[in-house]
Amino acid sequence: MSAMAAVALLWRGATGERPESTRNFARLAPMAEALSAAGVMVEPMLFTDEDADFVFDRLVRLDGVLVWVDPLDGTDTRLVLDTMLRRLSAAGVWVSAHPNTIDKIGTKEVLYRSKTLSWGMDTHLYTSAAALHSELPGRLAGGAPRVLKRCHGNGGVGVWKVTARERVAGRPMVRVQHAAPRDFVTEDLPLDMFVDRCQEYFVAGGTVIDQPFAPRLAEGMIRAYLTGAEVVGFARQHPPAAPPDAPGGAAAAIFGMPSAKTMFDATERSLARLRAQLEQEWIPGLCELVRLAAGDLPVLWDADFLYGPPDPNGTDTYVLCEINARSVLPFPAGAPTAVARAVADRLGTTTERQTQQRL
What are phi and psi of 308, to 5 degrees? Predict the structure, then answer.
């Protein structure tokens, strides 16, 4: 017996809340419409940690689940959710993005694991606050700022620009700027106090990534949206104008990016070189480095790039800023159709077991 495949669109909500009363219902409507047009039944569903068993019992009757949940949401993390998703996968439900895939490409550690690709920079990995305290001063000694990123995070939370300052009473000092507020506020404090602030990032095996500050940040960021190994669109973001009297100059003051994005189709001519590098070089190289099958790539994910130094011919290069594989919103107009096609191809018709469960 065969039947239409059925998937859930899952995002976080409150107990007893209806999906249509939440912001993501309208934001994900194009995705639901594209899936329905591709012959896939869609069920919007909300997740809370407290209702994990109830949600599991509903999801296990479906063929798949597409998940939109940030790694950090208020005081909530994805620990309970990811445990449930792994149970679903073990029961035969297709999950995108699977937590195992996120562990390989969807945390800041991917910047360290893939630094040998031509999108990489001088990237280091700290596995403890003690390592951060002992190794960071040497990397700051040249005077150039570094960017520290907690392994799990979103919205710039736990992303810091750090610059060495003159010692005070023999204590190493740093100037720090947090990306999350998206403002120009900096703070000078002793290095050991900043490390204490980062202690929580190492809880439960967490890590911190260390990269050079990209000097062309003021020129903006480019986000490439992907379905599997195919680029399905782009977005550009530009930082707000910095005050001319900012410490170090206006360009040096810019750090966090605003959320507003200008979307482009995958065929955008100005980004053709970036698309070719992603599809022909970087995505295959990434999969090989992290030992991930191309078929396990999420049906919707994105990679953020900053401009690197021009090559000898004066052509722009790109450096990887981060990869998002957990909650990609918003997305270009062409993405839902590509996602729906990938979901339909992946699921086909339901299995006999799943069909009987829904009868």
Answer: -95, -175
Q: What is the CA radius of gyration of the chain?
A: 22
Q: Measured between alpha carbons, how far is residue 294 from residues 244, 287, 339 in Å?
A: 47, 7, 15
Say which residue the tokens 């068993």 belong to.
Answer: 53
C-alpha torsion 176→177→178→182, nearest 10: 180
Q: What angle do CA 167, 170, 172 make, to 5 degrees?
A: 45
Buried b (16+ CB within 10 A) or exposed e, 58-68: ebbbbbbbbbb
Structure confidence by residue, pLDDT tens digits, 20-55: 999 999 999 999 999 999 999 999 999 999 999 999
The candidate with the shortest Cα–Cα distance to 318, out of 284, 271, 255, is 271
pLDDT digits (tens, 9 = 90+) for 137-180: 999 998 999 999 999 888 888 999 999 999 999 899 999 999 98
**How far is 308 from 213, CA to CA, in rounded Å?**
11
Rounded distance, CA 2 to CA 307, Å?
49
Q: What is the pTM of this model?
A: 0.91
Q: Which domains does the chain have, with CATH numbers?
A: 6-97+339-358 (3.40.50.20), 105-120+215-325 (3.30.470), 130-212 (no CATH)
